[in-house]
Amino acid sequence: MEAPTACTKCKIDSDFPFLKNANCVGCTAAIPNCRTCTQADQFTDITCDACTASFTGVTCETDCGAGMKQFNGTFCQSVSCEFSVPCGGNGACKTTSGNSTCECKPGYNGRNCENLETCEVQNCQTCVQGDAKKCKVCAPNYQLTSYKHCELKQSCVVENCLTCVWNNPNRCQGCAQDYDLTAAGSCEIAQICKVKDCQTCVMGNENQCEICYKSLDPLTNCTDCKFGLFLSQNVCKSCGEGCGRCTSANKCISCADGSIPVKGKCSVQTAQIGAGGIAGIVIAILAVLLLVTLVVILIRRRKSTAVRAKLPDGGLLEGHNGSQVAVVD
């Protein structure tokens, strides 16, 4: 059974470029009823730029319903409004009891949405609706900060890099044409690959593909995997029990606990004593007992010999009736 997909990065120019819950998905899977999505990088949320025909709202959660249609991708308008471009093209026209009214889109106000709202954020192109002090879209050559302000895009010191990671000029986010982004955030010249529909070939082998351009399954478009998983045809699979990094399910190169794999495997050994071990212990105990017995016998014999040597007639004593008695241990 395959391990669940656990992507950390998705191929941008594929059918499933957005990262959501560790899976690579398309726009409609990320935000239902959304037609066009945006995601700055894998660390930010996916946002909807335009809803499908009959839905509106920030996450396309509102169904316009019968007699209404979407207008400008943001509002629902009555199909009975007379003008082909109502509200100056900056809002949605609604007819209630014969009266038409305009609901202006963000950045505009007035009866016919003719007034462009002011934005107090310097170098901001569009402010957040209802908040003139928070920017939504910065002017060209400026980037949005976490405080919703606009700052001049920072210089990038990574060679052959077009865009660096925010607030890190030493790590690239997008390389120039004919260069590939590495895991370390640098740009290396793109490798020539002869395999059809292959994005990246195995290093040093132009005939063996490592990452494909396309995938039929939205959950199998990974370009990188988490610890304990390996990439196989754009799918993250388990390295196996106890393995941290591997090249395949049967080839572990480093164990999760830091130990060295044995024949490509990492296993937890449980100390057990088998029948052979028990027999060895018994033999060792018997050998010790035999050795102790021999030592005792040897000591007693030496003592006996020493006593006889001190007595006359080789250890014979004369009894009270003239008989001789041998001294024994």
From TrEMBL:
Q: Please give the Gene3D superfamilies that the UniProt record associates with this protein.
A: Laminin
Q: Which cysteines are joined by disulfide bonds?
A: C104-C113
Annotated protein name in UniProt: Cysteine-rich membrane protein 2
Q: In the record, which residues are listed under signal peptide? A: none
What are the transmembrane regions?
273-299
Give the matching Pfam families.
EGF_Teneurin (PF23106)
Q: Which SMART domains match?
A: EGF, FU
Give the record's keywords alphabetically.
Disulfide bond, EGF-like domain, Membrane, Transmembrane, Transmembrane helix
Ranges for the EGF-like domain? 77-114
Spell out the InterPro entries in the cross-references: EGF, Furin_repeat, Growth_fac_rcpt_cys_sf
Family annotation (PROSITE patterns): EGF_1 (PS00022), EGF_2 (PS01186), EGF_3 (PS50026)
